[in-house]
Specification:
The strands form 2 sheets. Strands 2, 4, 5, 6, 9, 10 and 11 form a 7-stranded mixed sheet that branches. A 4-stranded antiparallel sheet has the order 1-3-8-7, with no helix packed on it. The chain starts with a strand and ends with a strand. It has strands at about 5, 10-15, 20-25, 35-40, 45-50, 55-60, 65-70, 75-80, 90-100, 105, 110-115. Helix content is about 0%, strand content about 55%. It has no helices and 11 strands.
């Protein structure tokens, strides 16, 4: 059974930094893409950042220039370095992997990030 586990959430003051990590278990293939999404209370889930197996990245407009996504070479592990955090970044952050013989999305349970002003 495929599981994605996120680590690194917590409470931080505005202007601070956090680093999230996500590791997959039970996977016998390499995800084509891995990424981070977030959902704030009362809002829809939105893209934060994605990275392909080839290292190409894409970021949500609100985090571009502040967040950096990276992936361990050849591994189903992805990181999100978040700098210059703002209260608006407060949300549950979810890791997602996409791939498989019949490609589909796999989601983690989420980790809470709270940025205080």
């Amino acid at each position: 059974q495929v599981q994605l586990l996120e680590f690194g959430g917590g409470l931080v003051q505005a202007g601070g930094s956090l680093r999230l990590s996500c590791s997959a278990s039970g996977v016998i293939f390499s995800f084509n893409t891995m990424g981070w999404y977030r959902q704030a209370p009362g809002k829809q889930r939105e893209l934060v950042a994605v990275i392909t197996s080839g290292g190409n990245t894409n970021y949500g407009v609100s985090v571009k220039g502040r967040f950096t996504i990276s992936r361990a070479n050849g591994q189903n592990t992805v990181y999100l370095q978040m700098n210059s955090l703002e209260p608006e970044d407060t949300a549950v952050y979810y890791c997602k992997g996409h791939g498989g013989v019949i490609p589909r999305d796999y989601w983690g349970q989420g980790t809470q990030v709270t940025v205080s002003s």
